[in-house]
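not sure who needs this but someone in the group chat was asking about Glyoxalase from Xanthomonas vasicola pv. vasculorum so here u go. i didnt clean anything up, its just raw.
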Amino acid sequence: MDAFHRAALQHGGHCNGTPGVRPDYGDDYYAAFVIDPDGHHIEAVVDRTPTRQPAPPLRDVGMSVL
């Protein structure tokens, strides 16, 4: 996220919100906001909320080598 924000500013964008946690959106919501040279408002987000259940552990499997 920080690298995105830096690159956007280096390529003519304007800061519209430094990278950081946005507790109003969630405990793990980390975002940065820029306005690109054409005036588009861009938000980049890292949301660490799990989107699926973790895979169950693998069972022991027997194996033979011939």
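also Strands lie at 14-21, 29-35, 41-47. if thats useful
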